[in-house]
Protein backbone atom coordinates (compact mmCIF):
# COMPACT_ATOMS: atom_id res chain seq x y z
CA UNK A 1 0.00 0.00 0.00
CA UNK A 2 1.45 3.37 -1.03
CA UNK A 3 2.11 6.22 1.40
CA UNK A 4 -0.50 8.42 -0.27
CA UNK A 5 -3.18 5.73 0.04
CA UNK A 6 -2.24 5.17 3.68
CA UNK A 7 -2.57 8.91 4.20
CA UNK A 8 -6.12 8.86 2.82
CA UNK A 9 -7.06 5.94 5.08
CA UNK A 10 -5.66 7.71 8.15
CA UNK A 11 -7.45 10.89 7.12
CA UNK A 12 -10.75 9.05 6.74
CA UNK A 13 -10.44 7.58 10.24
CA UNK A 14 -9.76 11.06 11.57
CA UNK A 15 -12.85 12.47 9.83
CA UNK A 16 -15.01 9.67 11.22
CA UNK A 17 -13.83 10.53 14.75
CA UNK A 18 -14.32 14.27 14.22
CA UNK A 19 -17.86 13.68 12.91
CA UNK A 20 -19.04 13.18 16.47
CA UNK A 21 -17.37 16.33 17.81
CA UNK A 22 -20.08 18.91 17.19
CA UNK A 23 -22.97 16.72 18.43
CA UNK A 24 -20.93 15.83 21.53
CA UNK A 25 -20.12 19.50 22.12
CA UNK A 26 -23.78 20.41 21.70
CA UNK A 27 -24.71 17.88 24.38
CA UNK A 28 -21.92 19.01 26.70
CA UNK A 29 -22.71 22.75 26.59
CA UNK A 30 -26.22 21.99 27.79
CA UNK A 31 -24.75 21.59 31.30
CA UNK A 32 -21.21 22.99 31.03
CA UNK A 33 -20.13 26.59 30.42
CA UNK A 34 -18.55 26.79 26.91
CA UNK A 35 -15.31 28.35 28.15
CA UNK A 36 -14.94 25.78 30.93
CA UNK A 37 -15.65 23.00 28.45
CA UNK A 38 -12.93 24.32 26.13
CA UNK A 39 -10.18 24.53 28.74
CA UNK A 40 -11.26 21.32 30.50
CA UNK A 41 -11.13 19.20 27.34
CA UNK A 42 -7.74 20.68 26.43
CA UNK A 43 -6.37 20.12 29.94
CA UNK A 44 -7.55 16.50 30.06
CA UNK A 45 -6.10 15.77 26.64
CA UNK A 46 -2.93 17.67 27.59
CA UNK A 47 -2.32 15.41 30.58
CA UNK A 48 -2.82 12.34 28.37
CA UNK A 49 -0.54 13.80 25.69
CA UNK A 50 2.18 14.49 28.26
CA UNK A 51 1.93 10.92 29.53
CA UNK A 52 2.32 9.60 25.96
CA UNK A 53 5.36 11.78 25.28
CA UNK A 54 7.00 10.65 28.51
CA UNK A 55 6.13 6.99 28.03
CA UNK A 56 7.69 6.92 24.56
CA UNK A 57 10.58 9.20 25.57
CA UNK A 58 10.06 11.71 22.80
CA UNK A 59 12.72 14.37 22.28
CA UNK A 60 11.80 17.97 22.97
CA UNK A 61 10.78 19.93 19.86
CA UNK A 62 13.26 22.37 18.40
CA UNK A 63 13.08 26.03 19.37
CA UNK A 64 12.05 26.83 15.80
CA UNK A 65 9.04 24.51 16.17
CA UNK A 66 7.54 26.48 19.05
CA UNK A 67 5.90 29.09 16.83
CA UNK A 68 4.24 26.38 14.72
CA UNK A 69 3.13 24.52 17.84
CA UNK A 70 1.68 27.77 19.22
CA UNK A 71 -0.29 28.21 15.99
CA UNK A 72 -1.62 24.67 16.30
CA UNK A 73 -2.58 25.32 19.93
CA UNK A 74 -4.38 28.56 19.12
CA UNK A 75 -6.10 27.01 16.11
CA UNK A 76 -7.30 23.56 17.18
CA UNK A 77 -6.68 23.32 20.93
CA UNK A 78 -8.28 26.64 21.91
CA UNK A 79 -9.71 28.47 18.88
CA UNK A 80 -11.96 25.92 17.17
CA UNK A 81 -13.27 24.25 20.37
CA UNK A 82 -14.03 27.58 22.07
CA UNK A 83 -15.63 29.24 19.06
CA UNK A 84 -17.78 26.21 18.24
CA UNK A 85 -18.82 25.77 21.88
CA UNK A 86 -19.93 29.41 21.96
CA UNK A 87 -21.65 29.06 18.58
CA UNK A 88 -23.55 25.97 19.69
CA UNK A 89 -25.22 28.06 22.36
CA UNK A 90 -26.94 29.87 19.46
CA UNK A 91 -27.28 27.22 16.74
CA UNK A 92 -27.91 23.50 16.56
CA UNK A 93 -25.22 20.97 15.67
CA UNK A 94 -27.08 20.36 12.39
CA UNK A 95 -26.86 24.07 11.54
CA UNK A 96 -23.15 24.10 12.34
CA UNK A 97 -22.58 21.37 9.74
CA UNK A 98 -23.16 24.01 7.05
CA UNK A 99 -19.83 25.56 7.97
CA UNK A 100 -17.95 22.26 8.16
CA UNK A 101 -18.52 22.15 4.41
CA UNK A 102 -16.19 25.16 4.13
CA UNK A 103 -13.39 23.61 6.19
CA UNK A 104 -11.75 21.65 3.33
CA UNK A 105 -11.36 24.86 1.33
CA UNK A 106 -9.90 26.68 4.33
CA UNK A 107 -7.48 23.81 4.97
CA UNK A 108 -6.42 23.75 1.31
CA UNK A 109 -5.83 27.51 1.27
CA UNK A 110 -3.64 27.38 4.35
CA UNK A 111 -1.93 24.31 2.89
CA UNK A 112 -0.86 26.51 -0.01
CA UNK A 113 0.15 29.42 2.23
CA UNK A 114 1.88 27.44 5.00
CA UNK A 115 2.59 24.01 3.54
CA UNK A 116 4.00 25.01 0.17
CA UNK A 117 1.54 22.83 -1.77
CA UNK A 118 0.47 23.78 -5.29
CA UNK A 119 -2.65 21.86 -6.41
CA UNK A 120 -3.63 22.03 -10.06
CA UNK A 121 -6.48 24.34 -11.14
CA UNK A 122 -8.89 21.41 -11.53
CA UNK A 123 -8.40 20.65 -7.83
CA UNK A 124 -9.94 23.98 -6.89
CA UNK A 125 -12.87 23.29 -9.21
CA UNK A 126 -13.69 19.98 -7.50
CA UNK A 127 -13.01 21.44 -4.04
CA UNK A 128 -15.28 24.40 -4.62
CA UNK A 129 -18.03 22.24 -6.11
CA UNK A 130 -17.87 19.86 -3.16
CA UNK A 131 -18.16 22.74 -0.70
CA UNK A 132 -21.15 24.14 -2.59
CA UNK A 133 -22.85 20.74 -2.56
CA UNK A 134 -22.40 20.31 1.19
CA UNK A 135 -23.57 23.82 2.03
CA UNK A 136 -26.49 23.55 -0.40
CA UNK A 137 -27.59 20.24 1.10
CA UNK A 138 -27.41 21.62 4.64
CA UNK A 139 -29.37 24.74 3.71
CA UNK A 140 -32.01 22.63 1.99
CA UNK A 141 -32.81 21.04 5.35
CA UNK A 142 -34.50 24.26 6.49
CA UNK A 143 -31.88 25.50 8.95
CA UNK A 144 -32.69 28.68 10.83
CA UNK A 145 -30.35 31.66 10.68
CA UNK A 146 -28.51 32.88 13.77
CA UNK A 147 -26.08 35.75 12.97
CA UNK A 148 -24.00 35.46 16.15
CA UNK A 149 -23.69 31.71 15.87
CA UNK A 150 -22.87 31.95 12.16
CA UNK A 151 -20.11 34.53 12.77
CA UNK A 152 -18.60 32.36 15.48
CA UNK A 153 -18.66 29.30 13.22
CA UNK A 154 -16.95 31.21 10.39
CA UNK A 155 -14.19 32.29 12.77
CA UNK A 156 -13.90 28.69 13.98
CA UNK A 157 -13.42 27.43 10.41
CA UNK A 158 -10.59 29.90 9.78
CA UNK A 159 -8.86 28.95 13.04
CA UNK A 160 -9.28 25.24 12.37
CA UNK A 161 -8.05 25.39 8.78
CA UNK A 162 -4.89 27.18 9.90
CA UNK A 163 -4.33 24.73 12.76
CA UNK A 164 -4.82 21.73 10.48
CA UNK A 165 -2.40 22.98 7.83
CA UNK A 166 0.27 24.07 10.31
CA UNK A 167 0.04 20.83 12.25
CA UNK A 168 0.23 18.75 9.08
CA UNK A 169 3.30 20.66 7.92
CA UNK A 170 5.04 20.01 11.23
CA UNK A 171 3.87 16.37 11.29
CA UNK A 172 5.98 15.60 8.23
CA UNK A 173 9.01 15.80 10.51
CA UNK A 174 7.79 15.24 14.08
CA UNK A 175 4.94 12.76 13.50
CA UNK A 176 1.18 13.21 13.87
CA UNK A 177 0.58 12.22 17.50
CA UNK A 178 3.71 14.04 18.62
CA UNK A 179 2.53 17.34 17.13
CA UNK A 180 -0.89 17.35 18.77
CA UNK A 181 0.62 16.10 22.05
CA UNK A 182 3.24 18.87 22.14
CA UNK A 183 0.60 21.47 21.19
CA UNK A 184 -1.59 20.27 24.06
CA UNK A 185 1.36 20.25 26.48
CA UNK A 186 2.39 23.76 25.39
CA UNK A 187 -1.05 25.07 26.33
CA UNK A 188 -1.44 22.82 29.41
CA UNK A 189 -0.28 25.35 32.07
CA UNK A 190 -2.85 27.88 30.87
CA UNK A 191 -5.70 25.41 30.26
CA UNK A 192 -5.19 23.58 33.58
CA UNK A 193 -5.19 26.81 35.61
CA UNK A 194 -8.19 28.13 33.68
CA UNK A 195 -10.09 24.87 34.20
CA UNK A 196 -9.51 25.05 37.95
CA UNK A 197 -10.57 28.70 38.11
CA UNK A 198 -13.68 28.19 35.98
CA UNK A 199 -14.73 24.90 37.52
CA UNK A 200 -18.34 25.09 38.75
CA UNK A 201 -18.83 24.97 42.51
CA UNK A 202 -21.00 21.89 42.11
CA UNK A 203 -21.44 19.22 39.44
CA UNK A 204 -24.73 18.03 40.86
CA UNK A 205 -26.71 19.51 37.98
CA UNK A 206 -24.50 17.96 35.30
CA UNK A 207 -26.25 14.96 33.77
CA UNK A 208 -24.72 11.85 32.23
CA UNK A 209 -25.02 12.98 28.56
CA UNK A 210 -22.96 16.10 29.29
CA UNK A 211 -20.26 13.99 30.99
CA UNK A 212 -20.23 11.67 27.99
CA UNK A 213 -19.90 14.66 25.67
CA UNK A 214 -16.96 16.00 27.70
CA UNK A 215 -15.29 12.59 27.63
CA UNK A 216 -15.69 12.26 23.87
CA UNK A 217 -14.36 15.71 22.96
CA UNK A 218 -11.46 15.34 25.44
CA UNK A 219 -10.28 11.90 24.38
CA UNK A 220 -11.35 11.48 20.76
CA UNK A 221 -11.87 14.97 19.33
CA UNK A 222 -8.88 16.53 21.08
CA UNK A 223 -6.32 13.73 20.87
CA UNK A 224 -7.05 10.42 19.14
CA UNK A 225 -8.67 11.99 16.07
CA UNK A 226 -5.60 14.17 15.50
CA UNK A 227 -3.27 11.18 15.67
CA UNK A 228 -4.90 9.86 12.48
CA UNK A 229 -5.72 13.22 10.93
CA UNK A 230 -2.29 14.85 11.07
CA UNK A 231 -0.63 11.63 9.93
CA UNK A 232 -3.03 11.46 6.99
CA UNK A 233 -2.49 15.10 5.99
CA UNK A 234 1.29 14.72 6.19
CA UNK A 235 1.34 11.53 4.12
CA UNK A 236 -1.31 12.28 1.51
CA UNK A 237 -1.08 16.05 1.21
CA UNK A 238 -2.85 18.82 3.14
CA UNK A 239 -5.03 20.04 0.27
CA UNK A 240 -5.91 16.58 -1.05
CA UNK A 241 -6.67 14.66 2.16
CA UNK A 242 -8.35 17.76 3.59
CA UNK A 243 -11.15 17.23 1.07
CA UNK A 244 -12.30 14.22 3.10
CA UNK A 245 -13.84 16.76 5.47
CA UNK A 246 -16.56 17.22 2.86
CA UNK A 247 -17.92 13.87 4.02
CA UNK A 248 -18.06 14.87 7.68
CA UNK A 249 -21.60 16.34 7.62
CA UNK A 250 -22.93 13.17 6.02
CA UNK A 251 -21.15 10.98 8.56
CA UNK A 252 -22.79 13.11 11.23
CA UNK A 253 -26.19 12.51 9.68
CA UNK A 254 -25.46 8.78 9.43
CA UNK A 255 -24.66 8.75 13.15
CA UNK A 256 -27.95 10.50 13.80
CA UNK A 257 -29.78 7.89 11.74
CA UNK A 258 -28.03 5.04 13.56
CA UNK A 259 -28.20 6.37 17.10
CA UNK A 260 -31.36 8.48 16.98
CA UNK A 261 -33.40 6.61 14.39
CA UNK A 262 -33.60 9.56 11.96
CA UNK A 263 -34.51 8.76 8.38
CA UNK A 264 -31.88 8.69 5.63
CA UNK A 265 -33.50 10.32 2.60
CA UNK A 266 -32.73 9.72 -1.11
CA UNK A 267 -31.55 13.35 -1.26
CA UNK A 268 -28.93 12.59 1.38
CA UNK A 269 -27.70 9.53 -0.52
CA UNK A 270 -27.55 11.45 -3.81
CA UNK A 271 -25.71 14.36 -2.21
CA UNK A 272 -23.25 12.02 -0.53
CA UNK A 273 -22.49 10.28 -3.83
CA UNK A 274 -21.93 13.64 -5.55
CA UNK A 275 -19.59 14.79 -2.79
CA UNK A 276 -17.63 11.51 -2.94
CA UNK A 277 -17.12 12.08 -6.68
CA UNK A 278 -15.81 15.58 -5.88
CA UNK A 279 -13.39 14.12 -3.32
CA UNK A 280 -12.17 11.59 -5.92
CA UNK A 281 -11.71 14.39 -8.46
CA UNK A 282 -9.88 16.60 -5.95
CA UNK A 283 -7.54 13.74 -5.09
CA UNK A 284 -6.75 13.13 -8.75
CA UNK A 285 -5.72 16.72 -9.40
CA UNK A 286 -4.05 17.54 -6.09
CA UNK A 287 -0.28 17.89 -6.10
CA UNK A 288 1.48 15.48 -3.72
CA UNK A 289 3.28 16.90 -0.68
CA UNK A 290 7.03 17.51 -1.01
CA UNK A 291 8.74 14.09 -1.01
CA UNK A 292 11.66 15.20 1.13
CA UNK A 293 9.22 16.11 3.87
CA UNK A 294 6.76 13.24 3.49
CA UNK A 295 9.48 10.63 3.83
CA UNK A 296 9.88 11.70 7.46
CA UNK A 297 6.19 11.46 8.35
CA UNK A 298 5.60 8.86 11.03
From TrEMBL:
Record's GO cellular component terms: membrane
Name recorded for this polypeptide: Transporter
InterPro entries assigned: AA-Vitamin_Transporters, EamA_dom, EmrE-like
Membrane found in the keyword field: yes
Domain EamA residues, every copy: 7-130, 148-280
Keywords noted in UniProt: Membrane, Transmembrane, Transmembrane helix
Membrane association type: Multi-pass membrane protein
Organism for this UniProt entry: Ancylobacter defluvii
Transmembrane segments: 7-29, 35-54, 66-88, 94-113, 122-139, 145-165, 177-198, 210-230, 237-261, 267-286
Similarity remark: Belongs to the EamA transporter family.
UniProt-annotated location(s): Membrane
Main localization (coarse): membrane
Pfam families xref list: EamA (PF00892)
